[in-house]
Amino acid sequence: MTPAPLERIEIIVPERDDSRRVFGEVAALYENRKVELTEKGHIIVMAPAGIEGGYNSGEAFGQLRNWAKQNKQGKAFDSSAGFFITPNENRSPDAAWVSNDRIESIPKADRKGFAPFCPDFAIEVKSPSNNLAELRDKCARYVQCGAVEAWLIDPETTTVEVWRLNQPHVTLKNVTSVAASGPLSGFVLDLTEIWAGL
Length: 198
Prior knowledge:
A hairpin with a 4-residue loop joins β9 and β10 (about 160-165). By secondary structure, this protein is α+β, with helices and mostly antiparallel strands. Helix content is about 30%, strand content about 30%. The chain has 5 helices and 13 strands. The protein has 2 domains: about 1-50, no CATH class; about 50-195, tt1808, chain A. The mean pLDDT is about 90.
């Protein structure tokens, strides 16, 4: 008998409860799944991505990590890293970058836990199980909460949506690469492999 696929789970935390405490308990329970806490106090246990979705988000993270290692001004993080982008909202972008100064502002003993801030840069890569409107809201929230830039990559439509601090939202269609700005100036994501998929 084939096991049922793992589905997305949404838990609504009553207002009288401590959403951060409940989130920590749920995240520990589902340690092998991506778990996020929304600004409305909902805990989302994400459905796992298929292998193509995992490959695409891994490609975005891999290129960001390689650039960060050469640049040496910050570190790249994959989707297993959680960020409290506000005191009561925890998100895990598919790929993120944080400057060394901000990493060093976290006491060494606290670095095993969630980051207490929004990353400087975030990438979300849409997989078939993702809701496009939710991903757009997440990217807009990253910039509202302190990121200088956030990208939403949609392999199905070969589209990249870009949010930048104090600039209008931009949609790029059928481009083969996208370049970052600000502290990530010099990072160019080659989209060829992502558009090709598996």
